[in-house]
Amino acid sequence: MADLTRKRGRRRPSPRKGHRTPFASAFEAYQARGWSNTLLLPPRKKTPPPRGFTGWGGKAVSEKQARRWAREQPSGNIALRPPQGVLGIDVDNYGDKRGGATLELWERELGPLPQTLVSTSRPLPSGIRWFGVPVGLGWQDVGDGVEVIHEGHRYAVTAPSWNPLSRTRYRWVHEASGETIPLEGLPRPSDLAQLPVVWIRALSCEAGSPAVVDAHAGEAWLGLLDDEPVCAKTCRLTEDACEELRGGGSRHHAMLVGSARLIRAAQDGHRGVRSALRILRDAFEHAARDRPTLGEFDRAVHGAIAKFTDGPPAARCWCPTPRKQRTRSEIPDRRDGSAARRRGAHRPRGVRPTASRREPLERDR
Ligand SMILES: [Zn+2]
For residue 185, how far is its CA from the centre of ligand 1 (angstroms)? Predict the structure, then answer.
């Protein structure tokens, strides 16, 4: 550290490495880290971007193209058009811009955003927060002083460009630690913090239908759940739902109610709901094997997540974990032994087969 200080002192007032040539000095580092759409801007300016490389349908920047730009205008500023599956939330909080207050308001409503990678030329909370998001969605701006940046809309001027308005350089910052990140240490787009599902629902405007939005958000939410262990409440709900499916009433209704109960339990922190949903799906498909089900189960689960969850699942519940888990071969109608055996081939981890021995749950009758 002392060494660095000495170096800085010795170099002053000459500019630091790369500052005279933001584009030429940085494009390779960005491309190597997976941020491949590096756009050339005029020296010390934020606009205009090169024609044909921005917006939906904009061309991807090839390495060859970037090299040509670096030769033609090495001192140009550099900007990024985010790759697919990445969303920037751009907070302007300076002068009369009140993006910080807007962000706070939304965080009170939707829950806090995870701390993530930020690109900025000003003090936080100003800056672009970067998140991983499902691909295939459209996005809307958050509100006063907070805009979104994605593959199809806008671009982000980034380090080591010069911001002519703040008269400072852009930099990458770890929001949690406040530390500046060198370009060589920049996270890859695929390693970014994921935007929480409630935020996805609030900010996405469907490129497809609401069902598409629910499906993307739903799968992201399910990804937060653990498979194992299955707790007592999850077990009981699964048994009840499977029994209801065998009961001769509406199978669709039984599946709808059962999956919604499981999703609500998962939100409350009850464990093993992913395994439970697989068991329920098998039971439903078995019960409804006389007709096509056409994704009914997935739609029900995604719909339940859209309706009944309001943030990541609670950390965990305190119910006991049953010593022995119910197995899927017991659940559907056992008269169809071949179907049960077939399903056993892709049984979830931890759910043991019971071809020879019945292993009832404690609560089982
Ligand atoms: Zn529980």
Answer: 41
